[in-house]
Amino acid sequence: MKKGKYLLAIDGGGTKTEYCIYNIETEETKSFLFGSTNYKNLGLKEVESNLKHSFHKICDALNIELEDIKGMVFGVSGCDTKSDYDVYESVVRRIGLNMDRVFICNDSEMTFLSVAESPGIGVVTGTGSIALGFDRDGSISRCGGWGSPLSDLGSGYWIGEQVLREWIKYLDGQIPGNEIFDDLMKYYHLEEKEDKCYYIASLNQRKITASAKLVSDRADKGNELCREILYEGAGEVTDISNVVYKRLKLQKEEKLELVLVGSIFNSSFYRETFMKLFQEKTGHENIKFVTLEKSPAQAGISLVKNKFL
Questions:
Q1: Using alpha carbons only, how large is the chain's radius of gyration in Å?
Q2: Half-sphere exposure at residue 285, Cβ-oriented, CA atoms within 13 angstroms
Q3: pLDDT tens-digit profile of 201-258?
């Protein structure tokens, strides 16, 4: 990318963070992937280190300075309260960015505002799960997203927990075998390990969440156990979405946009189940479901343009 003025959209997830940078002069975009920026998962010191490292790498790769970034939207999971916003603002200031050029928000807020208009709901189901409702006045209400294991029901982490519980039951001789257990055995390279149950019980959040894709793939191919898990998960996410829907106080015939974001919605079974359950629970007659054709960070460039150009 040539030297010039830049806009930056950051999608900070519980597992990874994508930085999408846009050259205002050439209209080129480039994306970079780095580690998580959720301080509730990693701790503030490591998140600040990750951010500094990321900005350093990006500036070096593009041969630019921080001053060349004319506007930035930082959407981050775990940014839920005023104190969270204050934490991220202090980190951004210490990195050396001008706060007049920075907009900090929850990652699901960034995604919704990038592709839809109020009134509507942004539903994110990735490592965690959250629903945000946006009313006509710009007010935002939320449900879920408070972190595992007590919240984030129906998320990738939650799905991973469910299937690993079933796998341990199988290894203990409580239930019959299933092809998803064979997938998990290969994925975690456990063929030679003797104490498999101990290994499974000691897995960290990232490794537990990773198993959700195996479950989603098997569900899309018709595996009944995996479909049962995803059906229950989609029901949990429907429940939190219905809570914020009620707060919007819409007439049934009014247009309602639902933006579906996150890796778990890549499963056709999960996505279609959620859409069906939401329509049944709300009885709303005019729903437009929006799925991203770009990554949240790439979609976020349109929001940065609106705010800073």
A1: 20
A2: 4
A3: 999 988 999 999 999 999 999 999 999 999 999 999 999 999 999 999 999 999 999 9
Cα-Cα-Cα-Cα dihedral sign, residues 151, 261, 178, 220? positive
Q: Which residues of 148-168 are buried (b: 16+ CB within 10 A; e: fewer)?
A: beebbbbbbbbbbbbbbebbb
User: And the tokens for 117?
Assistant: 């208009």
Which pTM does this prediction carry?
A: 0.82
Residue 96: how many other CB atoms lie within 10 Å: 11
Kindly provide the b/e burial profile for residues 9-31, where b requires at least 16 CB atoms within 10 angstroms of the residue's own CB.
bbbbbbbebbbbbbbbeeeebee
| CA distance linking residue 104 with residue 99, whole number of Å | 9
Helix axes 107-115, 296-308, angle to 10 degrees: 70
Q: Which residues, other chains included, contact 89 with Cβ-Cβ below 8 Å and sequence gap of 6+?
A: 99, 102, 104
| Closest to 265 measured CA to CA, from 184, 188, 161, 159 | 159
Tell me how far apart the alpha carbons of residues 242 and 141 are, in angstroms, rounded to a whole number: 12
In degrees and rounded to multiples of 5, residue 287 shows phi and psi of -110, 130
Instruction: Return the residue matching tokens 């279609």.
Output: 272
Q: Is 294 exposed, middle or buried (0-12, 13-18, 19+ CB in 10 A)?
A: middle
Q: Per-residue DSSP letters for 31-87? A: EEEEE---HHHH-HHHHHHHHHHHHHHHHHHHT--GGGEEEEEEEETT--SHHHHHH
* Tens-place pLDDT, residues 29-59: 999 999 888 888 788 888 889 899 999 999 9
Q: Which two structure tokens, joined as six digits, stand for 156?
A: 């990738």
Span 141-162, average pLDDT: 93
H helices of 96-223, in order, are 107-115, 156-171, 179-187, 196-201, 205-220
Half-sphere exposure of 94 (CA within 13 A, CB side): 15
Query: What angle (nearest 5°) sits at the alpha carbon of residue 145, between those of residues 243 and 8?
Result: 115
Burial class (CB in 10 A: 0-12, 13-18, 19+), 173: exposed
